[in-house]
Amino acid sequence: MSVVLILFGIIILALGVIQIRKPAWGWRVNEGWKVEGESEPSEAYLVLAEIGGILIVVMGAFLILVGIFKLLY
């Protein structure tokens, strides 16, 4: 069970880093295909996406730590 937590934490951590580094990617995947022509996400969306990415990184790190703790004890 602890190995699963660690792997899940690593996956979540990687997704969080992607969300922080490229916040517009999520918009293009979810909303960009609905709009014709050149369109970009708003600044508010980009800021909220980066904040969400930070929270996801924290959650992934927490899962990794819990998994390591369960392995050791």
From TrEMBL:
Record InterPro entries: DUF6199 (IPR045679)
Name of a matching Pfam family: DUF6199
Keyword Membrane: yes
The species this protein was found in: Paenibacillus dokdonensis
Domain DUF6199: 8-66
Highest rank taxon of the organism: Bacteria
Transmembrane domains' residue ranges: 44-69
Keywords associated with the record: Membrane, Transmembrane, Transmembrane helix
Protein name: DUF6199 domain-containing protein
